[in-house]
């Protein structure tokens, strides 16, 4: 994870610019709130009384969204000190009662009180080997209470065949192997390019591919009882829904729900 840490320490504020790109609200945010979180919410559609751990929290984008659902306690963890600094700066300016910590998600100690929900939005895609992926899943398992859930996003392992220019969406992906060679080998590097609103590339970082079978096996080996893939969906009420039809042919991410 050292390379991952240094990548994010260097890109810092540039990465935050991606959060302003338009696809995240009607697609990623909609998928999270309407397709993944719903079964965990109370009758008021809140997380009242819940303890939440947000791994790979970055500058706290989703940490703040989860806190807004009225969870009792939330801890955001990221390996990048620069990202945690940005998160703490936002917390200082607009206090919400969120705690942040610089730590490697693979090396977390078991908590004194287990969490009701663990989230990780784009953590698992940084595992370089199957062993690292297993470490991450195992660490998540140790943080959760019995019958509690993990939800997260990872890079969309189902499809890398981007036959159209995705710069207008602020993100593109590429692998340096022939997509005709299937299956794609586990551990294959996936290069993520981020673009600003002017479609100028602002940074590139590296993810790693693992097959759906590998993900499912690793979570089972870690002790999880269930594992489910959640494809990205677009908010049917989005005013410019047609803009995202092409994006959804090859979305950059996919959701995961797993139960301890």
UniProtKB/TrEMBL annotation:
Domain of life per record: Eukaryota
Domain Methyltransferase: 52-135
InterPro entries: Methyltransf_25 (IPR041698), SAM-dependent_MTases_sf (IPR029063)
Keyword Transferase included in the entry's annotation: yes
CDD domains xrefs: AdoMet_MTases
MF terms in GO: transferase activity
One Pfam family here: Methyltransf_25
Keyword vocabulary terms for this entry: Transferase
Name of this protein: Methyltransferase domain-containing protein
Originating organism: Rotaria magnacalcarata
């Amino acid at each position: 994870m050292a390379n991952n840490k240094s990548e994010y320490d260097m890109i810092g504020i540039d990465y935050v610019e991606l959060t302003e790109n338009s696809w995240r609200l009607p697609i990623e945010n909609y998928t999270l709130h309407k397709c993944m979180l719903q079964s965990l919410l109370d009758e008021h559609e809140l997380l009242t009384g819940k303890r939440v751990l947000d791994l790979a929290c970055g500058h706290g984008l989703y940490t703040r969204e989860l806190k807004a659902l009225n969870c009792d306690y939330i801890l955001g963890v990221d390996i990048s000190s620069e990202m945690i600094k940005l998160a703490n700066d936002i917390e200082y300016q607009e206090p919400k009662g969120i705690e942040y910590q610089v730590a490697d998600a693979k090396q977390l100690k078991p908590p004194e009180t287990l969490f009701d929900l663990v989230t990780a939005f784009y953590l698992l895609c940084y595992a370089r080997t199957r062993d690292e992926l297993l470490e991450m899943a195992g660490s998540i398992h140790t943080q959760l209470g019995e019958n509690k859930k993990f939800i997260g996003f990872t890079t969309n392992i189902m499809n890398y065949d981007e036959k159209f220019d995705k710069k207008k969406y602020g993100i593109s992906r590429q692998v340096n192997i022939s997509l005709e060679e299937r299956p794609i080998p586990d551990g294959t590097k996936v290069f993520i390019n981020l673009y600003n609103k002017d479609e100028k590339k602002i940074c590139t970082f590296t993810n790693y591919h693992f097959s759906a079978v590998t993900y499912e096996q690793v979570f089972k080996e870690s002790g999880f009882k269930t594992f489910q893939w959640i494809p990205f969906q677009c908010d049917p009420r989005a005013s410019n829904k047609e803009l995202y039809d092409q994006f959804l042919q090859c979305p950059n991410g996919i959701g995961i729900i797993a139960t301890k």
